[in-house]
Amino acid sequence: MSDDPHGTANIPVGTTVVGYGGTVLGTVREVHPHYLLVSREGEHADLDVPVHAIFGFENGTLQVSVNRESTTAVDDVETAHRLNEEGQSS
Questions:
Q1: Alpha-carbon distance values, 40 to 2, 29, 85, 90 (Å)
Q2: What distance in Å separates the CA atoms of residue 23 and residue 34, rounded to the nearest whole number?
Q3: Could you give the 3-state DSSP secondary structure of residue 2?
Q4: 29 part of a folded domain
Q5: How many folded domains does the chain comprise?
Q6: N or C: which end of the chain has fewer CB within 10 A?
Q7: Distance CA 67, CA 59 (A)
Q8: Burial tier of 67 (Cβ tally within 10 Å: 0-12, 13-18, 19+)
Q9: Which domain holds residue 68?
Q10: pLDDT one-digit tens code per residue, 25-48
Q11: Domain with 73 in it: what CATH number?
Q12: Can you give the pTM of this predicted structure?
């Protein structure tokens, strides 16, 4: 499928994401063509995980080849703004 070359459409929101070395990074909050927004415990702790880092999906767990230190923290202000816009469009 050309619109979804990494198969991200099949990843359900809420899926546990396990990083390199077996550390749980969080759960999938949003799925995008080039990255996953991974929610972590605590306020404003989301991570962007590139889809090219996905190397497995087994028993409801998504396995990626990155760890917490190699992912990008999401800008808190941008996330709050986006969530506010989504709430207004409902």
A1: 30, 9, 21, 25
A2: 22
A3: coil
A4: yes
A5: 1
A6: C
A7: 20
A8: middle
A9: 8-89
A10: 999 999 999 999 998 876 667 899
A11: 2.30.30.240
A12: 0.73
